[in-house]
Amino acid sequence: MQQPASAHATHVGCVRECNEDCALSAPELGLWLVADGMGGHASGEVASRLVAEHVRQGVAHGLGLVNALEAAHMAVLDAAARGVGGQGMGATAVALRLEAGDYEISWVGDSRAYLWNGRRLSQLTRDHTFVQQLVDGGALTPTQALSHPQRNQVTQALGAAGLQELDVGTVLGTLRPGQALLLCSDGLTGEVPDQRIRDVLAAEGDEQTKVDRLIDLALDAGAPDNVTVVLVSIPGA
User: Fold this and answer.
1) Does residue 11 carry a pLDDT above 90?
2) Do residues 219 and 12 make contact, with C-beta atoms less than 8 angstroms apart?
3) Total domain count for the chain?
């Protein structure tokens, strides 16, 4: 199995003054992550970086992704209690572990992971949002959800106080030569339709070129939020 190729980028966007997103690339651990902080300047930034640091630390010490994200959740809560960052700060996150082509993806909130198989783009994660609950219950169609005024209201977040139980989603699979995994914050998916994402992934170019193109598409659409993209692929036909 060839070694994976990867690239990442993050951008503050066109409206916000600070970037509360954080991207982690640790190929030596087979680990990649996108965290999207919440809580405003000096709070969301702190939360997303705490998540990245503690997930990396946990995986380096042998934790699985679910336990590493749970540890990050406690770290954000503890930091807020000690006055680091701000009360009410939190982060959504999606993390990838890749070993010998087998992947594990775990997430909390509405940061997403997609599989590009060379022809089709498939969303692997399922948003922890109020609107997704309405879609699951049949009260909204997926198309209606795209423009719902509460589409960004998450029901799960790392560091969120008052959660009775942290719900970490997980999916397993195998990444084959010629395929790629895309991790991103909602700053990308909120502005760039799946078809445009497919077009970029299908086009010529290395991983960094494609990541940069996706960021540019979000910026061209106005990028009211921070935008973060990670792309991991197995070279091949």
Assistant:
1) yes
2) no
3) 1
Residue 20 has pLDDT above 80, yes or no: yes
pLDDT at 29 (0 to 100):
98
- Domain of 19, CATH number, reads 3.60.40.10
Q: Which domain holds residue 113?
A: 5-233
Residue whose entry in the numeric block shows the structure tokens 């996150």: 93
pLDDT band at 135 (very low <50, low <70, confident <90, very high): low
Minimal CA–CA distance to 31: which of 110, 92, 98? 98
Query: pTM value?
Result: 0.94
Confidence of residue 74 (pLDDT cuts 50, 70, 90): very high
β partners of residue 112: 184
Task: Tell me the three-class secondary structure of the chain, residue by residue.
Answer: CCCCEEEEEEECCCCCCCCCEEEEEEHHHCEEEEEEEECCCCCHHHHHHHHHHHHHHHHHCCCCHHHHHHHHHHHHHHHHHCCCCCCCCEEEEEEEEEECCEEEEEEECCCEEEEECCCCEEECCCCCEHHHHHHHCCCCCHHHHHCCCCCCCECCCECCCCCCCCCCEEEEEECCCCCEEEEECHHHHCCCCHHHHHHHHHCCCCHHHHHHHHHHHHHHCCCCCCEEEEEEECCCC
